[in-house]
Automatic annotation (TrEMBL):
This is HTH-type transcriptional regulator TtgR. It comes from the Bacteria. One of its GO terms (molecular function) is DNA binding. It holds the Pfam family TetR_N. Keywords: DNA-binding. InterPro entries: DNA-bd_HTH_TetR-type_CS (IPR023772), Homeodomain-like_sf (IPR009057), HTH-type_Tx_Regulator (IPR050624), HTH_TetR (IPR001647). It comes from Zhongshania aliphaticivorans. Signal peptide: none annotated.
Amino acid sequence: MKTNKRWGNGARVDDLDTGKKILLKSAVDCFITKGIKSTTIEDIAKVANVTRRTVYRYFNGKSDIIAALIDIERQRMFSKVFDVAKLYDNNFPLMLQECIWFAASYKPPEAGKLDLVSGANAAEASPHIDNDESDAYWRDLLKDPLDGYNERNGRNVNIDDLIQIVGRLVLSYRQIPTTKERFKASLLALSL
């Protein structure tokens, strides 16, 4: 989609994706420096060298920017979670445990970047994390292995119930980081 919008010093950005990428990078810089809650649209505009009006041409507000950033990281994370799941094809409980741990302890691959969804940023980011998009990824990941597990073991674990639990566990362990050993011990305690 061509936009031909003015950018920064009067140069033009020729496509929507380029403009969005510049603004998202600027938002990340602001969120890392000031935190999500303290960052304003004005801050993002200033870092991107544009006006507030330009930011609003691309995004409906800060919540829209946060959602876009979370969506990018969600896609990156789940592509890796699917790789983790493949390692445990024949052991659904272990696969589930390893995938939850990976998602709960996932950090963006850029070295030195603050995690935008944990710590001080958690309250602002959380509504964008455990949502329908995340549920769809978990469903794609877990449905077939769960069906096989249920069939082999005479169980009837409901995928919708499982997805709700998994999403909440991931968020809980992101908010209160722990070691993998303590994580496994707490899951074992739940299974008693």
